[in-house]
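Q&A log
Question type: sequence-to-structure
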Amino acid sequence: MTDFTMKTDADGVAVITWDTVGKSMNVMNEQGFRDLDALIDQALADDAVKGVVITSGKEGSFAGGMDINVISKMKEMAGDNPAAGLMQGLMECHAVLRKIERAGMDDKNKGGKPIAAALPGTALGIGLEIPLACHRIFCADNPKAKIGLPEIMIGIFPGMGGTTRLTRKMGAMAASPFLLEGKLSNPAKAKMGGLIDEVVDDPLAAAKEWVLSEPDIVKPWDAKGYKMPGGEPYHPAGFMTFVGASAMVNGKTQGVYPAAKALLSAVYEGAMVPFDTAIKIEARWFTHVLMNPSSSAMTRSIFISKEALEKGANRPDVADQTVKKVGVLGAGMMGAGIALVSAMAGIDVVLIDQNQEAADKGKDYSARYMDKGIQRKKATEEKKEKTLSLITATTDLDALKGCDLIVEAVFEDVGVKAEMTKKVEAIVGDDCIFASNTSTLPITELAKASVRPDQFIGIHFFSPVEKMLLVEIIKGKETGDMAVAKALDYVRQIRKTPIVVNDARFFYANRCIIPYINEGIRMVKEGVKPALIENAAKLVGMPLGPLQLVDETSIDLGVKIAKATKAAMGDEYPDEAVDEVIFWMADEGRLGRKTSAGFYDYDEKGKRTGLWSGLGDKYPVAEDQPEVTEVQHRLLFAQTLEAVRALEEGVLEDIREGDVGAILGWGFAPWSGGPLSWLDMVGAPWAAEVTNGLAEKHGDRFKAPDLLEDMANKNQTFYGRFDPAKAA
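Response status: OK
Response body:
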């Protein structure tokens, strides 16, 4: 079967319909390019065909882009010389799109047949690059549709002509948000921005009418005297554009995202040469990106692994556990956020708190969130009314009758949680699953208060719930398959990404991020410049330095966690040096952003104004400062070694969850694909050597785990040793 078919109507319009077999949205693969190429040849050679329209057989969408699984395997499929193989394959694809663009014209731009794109809706990646090669783009007036080139978000860039065509169509400055930021637009905004040409009720009919109107089909860059909008790089206006763009890219990426730099190079170099040469330059830089391990790691983690986890890659084989009614215990910020995302997913919610005022305040959180959405035209009054109608705010535990899932989000105290568990289990049905939203307390310990420990599980949300994509599901020692399935199905309903881990102190995410924060604080005490610590973190792609991160999460929370951890670990507690600093900060009343005073100073609007100078009075900066690479290694290995230990100890059961959880949970250097992918990039032998060197200088916390030592000795990779596909 073929994904492309063609039918010529009585008026002489050949309609090529893209309808990927077995997919809800069109995606391009290698065979698809061949089929499209053959149909274009056929249409151009047929004298009865006056024009061509390329459209979709899918309702509401044109295409979602390239098949990511194909992209992820392009390098390994490219032969013994992968760079040459990739370049050849890319140029073959470019030839198809250039054939569409030239449409049979001679070298004097004479002849040719008009080719239009008729988009029923969403057009992403190659799904927009094909239309950009056509002579006119018509799109349905579908406000839910998304138009754009989001490739940069998964570690690549638009490499099928989209970079070159969009830049020549719009100019480098106008094209930059769509290329460098992956900005997506609805059809109306896409037309205003210059991505598409027309927004109509019936794009197919409009496209047919247009191709029969004998239009001028010569693209501006193929016409004599073409000048790029905004100026070429060697003209003053264009030169300033590229100087600014280079500064912007390096400022935002810190030089660790190869795709952004390669894209900018392709645009800059391509702007100085004829179009066909520019396409070769784009292909060369795209090959460069595909050969970079960062590209494949980002694609694997941010798209392939993430999608697999969302589809239930590790879901137990039990009946559907779709949640119909959820009870949320505690209407504070966390509970209110859980109620909001549940109601937005169409689930009935009972929001419980000790007094009605607190419960109502928790429900009002949803009202205020929806109001902001209405102001930004991302929600409607009807959507707000429907969402709020699903939330019952009350103090009456009897309202929990009929709930099939309880999410407890009360104070982080074992006794308080135990009391609520017993009260609620006496009310709800025997098949109700009870989940605790604890971020630090062991699930196995909390489950002791339950009469049904097999139906007790951890569902750890990240704050703010409505913004954070990750949900960590924690299995206690007695947690059963039904509880795991219920938690996974619930996370799917609220459109989050789940990872499932086994019970251990701090589970997975907090286990890795706390050492990162602590290492930064420990360096402050040692006399390392705070600015060096923060900038070293950002230079390796961490979204926040450790000191800014603890300010955001609050220093008093760090104090509470430290005290609880020390009480549990006793003499094995490793962070006395860190406690000295944060306990002192708390005593000084510098609790972070919420008090407008922490490691950073803040203005009256809560905006950071710089690192707090008083920190140096208490912990003077040392005369000799470490190299930035040493600081970076300490910060990176503080996290990655914990990820290795979590895998070694069985807290992580699936390597994909370690990488996806790190990126979505606390923003671990997305360019790396996650901590385990990063270790594969640098190699286990190098990692073991460096981390053991850090251990000699800074302490046993950096000693390479046995698993890493073993892999170093065998020169293994994590994705080689723990490949989920092989495990399956």
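Response note: Residues 75 and 82 are 6 Å apart (CA to CA).
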